[in-house]
Structures are given as C-alpha cells and as structure tokens.
Amino acid sequence: MKSRPSIVLGIIAILVSALVFLVPFAFIILTAFKNKQQATLLDFSWPDGFHLWSNIVEVVTTRNWMLLTAFINSTILTVASVTLLVVFAAMVGFVLARRKTRWNGLIEFLILAGLMIPPAVVPTIWLLQGVGLFGKLHGLVLIEVAYGLPFSIILYRAFIATIPRELDEAAIIDGARPFDVFFRIILPLLWPVTVTNIVVQSVGVFNDFTNPLYYLPGNANATVQLTLYNFQSQFNTSYNLLFTNILLITIPPLLVFLFFNRHIVAGMTAGAVKG
C-alpha cells in the first residue's frame, strides 16, 4: 500500500498541474467572452455580456476569411508532414534496429545531434531559395519532416528492438522480400508507437509558429498560429479577438490529446524495456 506522504505528494502534484494548465485556459475562455473594452483590462473578472459568437464571426471573417485559409494550410501541412515522418522514421528505425554495422554509432550520434543542435535559419533559407522551395507549402513540409525525424526515429528504433527477429526470419524463409517484411510484418506491429508519433508530431506541426514565420511568408500561406498577428500591433491590440482566435486554434490539438491520451502513454513506454 502507498504511504500517506506519497499520497499527499500525489495530490499536491495534481493540484499544481491543474493550476498551471487550467487557470490559463480559463483565462482564455473568459477573455473570449468579453467585449473589446473589458478584455483590455486583462483580468479574471466575469464578462459583462456574452460576446463569444460575435467575436468568433469577426475572427473568422477578418482579412477575407484568413482563418479558414490558415486552417486548410495547417491541415495540409500537418497531414503531409506526419505521413512522411511515420514512413521514413519507421524505415530508418527498422534498419538501425536490425542491421548492426560500424556506421550505426555515427548514425545514432547524428540523430541525437539533430535533437540537441538548434536549426540554422539563415542557411536553411538560402538552401530553400536555391532549390526554389522558399515560401512554398511543400518546402515547409520538408522542413517539418527534417526537424521531426530524430525524435521519431528514436521512438521507432526502441520499439522495433522489442519485436523478435524470428518474425523477420520466418517471413524471409516463406519468400518475403525486405520491403514485404517491413510493410506486411513489422509496420502493422508498430501501431502503438505510430499512434503516439502521429499525435505528438501532428500537434507540434499544427501549433508550429516559428517555422511558418521564417520559411512561409505571405498571407496566402498563413498557418493558424500566424493568424494571431491579425489582432495585435504595437499600439492597439484587440484582446477579445486575440483570445477568441487562440481558443479556436487550441480546440483541435486539445481534442486530439483528450481522445488519444492513453495511446500516447502506451506508445512512449512500449519500447522502454526490451523483452
């Protein structure tokens, strides 16, 4: 049985977590219900009236329905990036886990370096301009894939290490080619870690602010996070519209986490212990 101090510490941790995560979200909701004058105060006061619907209409219709365009762009960016991430990371993780060569150490070092070393923005812009991909959505897809690969490869490699090699050998004996072994035998077994990777990466790409800001200029290419600029400026900020926009773009990632929370935990811990 758990001791009383551990139970008390657990309750305190839950309360602190609730305070850290729920209080800001409550502030966003309250401010989204206010008009411009009351929202300017930036306090926790109860709204004088419920202006949420009028705020939503103004946010959605601002700049020629820019928010809808941004949702479409972010959805395309997220789906394309995560699809490529899952396929490429799973294949690299499979090779690293199954083939032991003298290059494995160097490859794993480069993967860890990709996690630790911050990206170089200016050289990346030069590279994109050189290949004609700067300011294009598919160019940003490649950037998101490159930045997300190290984490995804580590997840898949750890999980694949728990899958017995006998499955590969049995499939090869039955006449399966290497691609058949991966796509028909291994990939279906990677469902827990794949769900985790999809959720984590999709939320990260959908909420990405800096990469679209650097590599995807122009209102036609705006993503959901960049629409926050619509309602703030140096001298005047419409906080009611700003927080309504934040509320709208927070709902999709929040729903993803609520529905797939168990899968995220299971996928992250599945490769922790090798059987």
TrEMBL record:
Function: Part of the ABC transporter complex UgpBAEC involved in sn-glycerol-3-phosphate (G3P) import. Probably responsible for the translocation of the substrate across the membrane.
Protein name from the UniProt record: sn-glycerol-3-phosphate transport system permease protein UgpE
Quaternary structure and interacting proteins, as annotated: The complex is composed of two ATP-binding proteins (UgpC), two transmembrane proteins (UgpA and UgpE) and a solute-binding protein (UgpB).
UniProt source species: Devosia neptuniae
Principal cellular location given in the protein's record: membrane
Keyword Lipid metabolism set for record: no
Ranges of residues in domain ABC transmembrane type-1: 71-260
Family annotation (Gene3D superfamilies): MetI-like (1.10.3720.10)
Localization in the cell: Cell inner membrane; Cell membrane
Membrane topology: Multi-pass membrane protein
